[in-house]
Task: inverse folding
């Protein structure tokens, strides 16, 4: 092969392509086809007769290919190849990858499925930002280290901080985004969050990304309308613009039509009865089982809201309903595709007295939250918001069967940190 690798001199007719060698295959006409990946595209050319030995080059070697365009077939003909970086033999089969093997995740990212996932995440973020900024929301940056974590689900990760203090990796950017409503009124944050989940499932990660949205003067009903419009808008963008990503990932787009249907709204109490009627064991006050949620979603055939949760199932930032203090003006938007809760939202408590009462109700130390109580004491506007599980949202739009297939470097419960 070394004799066939020419130096880049004036003898080269022109650069055809450069990038990673994906395959060298015989064609039906007796020719040899070379495929090179660059610019997120697979480029194809025909090898000249004296270059047949390029098949000895390990796949994923980085090469520059020179030649000319055949005017009759409009395909490149290779006359010489220059080696940029010769790869060692791959320890995995990129054509049939085991995506559950985290040891080689950094190499699996070269497979079409995970390359597509990287691009899906890029475009989900791009369209989400456009949706919110077109409606006057400001992108804000919030901390990921905190003293007082708003415990949402799972346990927290703690670590030593200065002066023998203990800091916590944040579970949600909510409190900090919420406090900024008193500054610029309409905000969103896209942050990593950390939750010490106990069980590995198809929808849970230890390190997640959350898109937090909060704004003044909203109500539970109005933010549900915003959530529905948000999801429907992103689905339309992907249907119209990104069919090539579904093809690259080998995924169907059939589920995308479901997002045009109405998103049903059902109260928690009624959802419990519907689930029991479907044959699942559930009592009022229980959390939802994933299988039961999937069965309920199949009845609706589209994402659906569960609203007005009991106070004991929610967190300290939800107020109580005036006509029923045991219920909250809250909502969760669930995927009908088995991807779990995609969005959780509702109204935020604006009274300092009610916030203090809620913190005590849920067993929190008021001293840790003194700064947050002050956001209520010194003029708090009525407001509402919602938190989007970015990884689950991406998985739902993609139509994957596991959240790790919509994640670049997944961190799983009880899993390792490699890579």
Result:
């Amino acid at each position: 092969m070394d004799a066939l690798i020419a130096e880049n001199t004036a003898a080269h007719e022109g650069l055809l392509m450069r990038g990673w060698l994906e395959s060298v295959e015989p064609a039906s006409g007796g020719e040899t086809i070379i495929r090179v990946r660059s610019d997120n595209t697979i480029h194809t050319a025909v090898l000249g007769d004296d270059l047949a030995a390029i098949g000895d080059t390990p796949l994923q070697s980085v090469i520059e290919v020179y030649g000319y365009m055949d005017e009759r077939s409009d395909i490149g003909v290779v006359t010489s190849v220059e080696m940029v970086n010769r790869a060692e033999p791959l320890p995995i089969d990129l054509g049939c990858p085991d995506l559950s093997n985290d040891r080689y995740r950094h190499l699996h990212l070269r497979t079409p499925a995970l390359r597509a996932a990287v691009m899906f995440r890029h475009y989900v973020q791009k369209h989400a930002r456009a949706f919110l900024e077109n409606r006057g929301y400001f992108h804000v940056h919030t901390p990921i280290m905190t003293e007082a974590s708003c415990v949402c689900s799972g346990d927290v990760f703690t670590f030593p901080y200065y002066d023998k203090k203990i800091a916590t990796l944040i579970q949600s950017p909510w409190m900090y985004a919420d406090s900024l409503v008193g500054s610029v009124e309409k905000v969103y944050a896209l942050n990593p969050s950390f939750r010490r989940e106990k069980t590995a499932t198809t929808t849970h990660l230890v390190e997640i990304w959350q898109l937090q949205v909060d704004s003044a003067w909203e109500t539970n009903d109005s933010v549900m309308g915003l959530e529905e419009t948000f999801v429907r808008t992103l689905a339309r963008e992907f249907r119209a613009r990104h069919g090539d990503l579904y093809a690259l990932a080998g995924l169907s787009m059939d589920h995308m039509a479901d997002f045009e249907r109405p998103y049903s709204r059902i109260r928690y109490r009624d959802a419990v009865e519907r689930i029991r009627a479907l044959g699942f064991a559930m009592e009022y006050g229980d959390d939802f089982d994933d299988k039961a949620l999937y069965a309920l979603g199949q009845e609706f055939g589209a994402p659906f809201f569960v609203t007005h949760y009991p106070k004991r199932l929610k967190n300290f930032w939800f107020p109580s309903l005036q006509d029923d203090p045991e219920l909250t003006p809250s909502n969760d938007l669930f995927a009908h595709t088995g991807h779990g809760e995609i969005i959780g939202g509702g109204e935020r408590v604006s009274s300092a007295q009610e916030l203090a009462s809620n913190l005590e109700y849920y067993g929190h130390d008021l001293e840790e939250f003194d700064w947050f109580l002050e956001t209520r004491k010194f003029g708090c506007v009525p407001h509402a918001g919602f938190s989007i599980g970015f990884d689950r949202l991406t998985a739902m739009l993609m139509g994957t069967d596991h959240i790790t297939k919509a994640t670049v470097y997944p961190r799983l419960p009880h899993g390792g940190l490699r890579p």
Remarks:
- The radius of gyration is 26 Å.
